[in-house]
Amino acid sequence: MNIITRSFAVAGFVAASLLGTTAYAQSGSGGEFTLFNDTAGNVVVGFYTNDGNGWSANWLADQMSPGESASAEFFAETGACDQLFQVGWLGGDGSEVMDEPISIDVCQASNVYLGDNEIKFD
Fold first, then answer.
1. Which residues, in sequence order, are CB contacts of 94 under 8 Å at separation 6+?
2. CA–CA separation, 47 vs 76, rounded Å?
3. Which residues, at least 6 apart from 118, have a Cβ–Cβ distance to it below 8 Å?
4. How far apart are CA 96 and CA 81, in angstroms?
5. Rounded CA separation 100/120 (Å)
6. Angle in degrees, CA 110, 8, 18, rounded to 5
7. Prediction pTM value
8. What's the CA gap between 120 and 101, in Å, rounded?
9. pLDDT along the chain (122 residues), means of 10
């Protein structure tokens, strides 16, 4: 399992979950991957990718509370394996607080675990 340290965590509350999709490259399991919110109390409100051609729209249709997961899929048959991912967290004032972008080899990763102080993938 690869581990990438995040720079901060943001507290928030709210419910809901699930899926939003945009295309760029294939991932470890035929283009599909799963996001897991492994935080104790932080809500994910945005998830973005960048293959070098600019940031995608938000992949999430709904917010992801702690313990929830969301499935996503790259639809392009070819593309860069090295993708920048960026997570948006629910801020105390309801705004989206952007985390530092991280690089993930989506050809090797099928699961992305969003923790309080780190992001892991396998």
1. none
2. 18
3. 3, 4, 5, 6
4. 27
5. 14
6. 40
7. 0.71
8. 13
9. 33 26 44 88 92 88 94 68 87 94 81 84 85
Question: Which token pair is 65?
Answer: 């509370």
Q: Which two tokens stand for residue 104?
A: 């993930």
What's the rounded Cα separation, in Å, for the pair 71 and 90? 20
Cα separation, 67 vs 64, in Å, equals 8
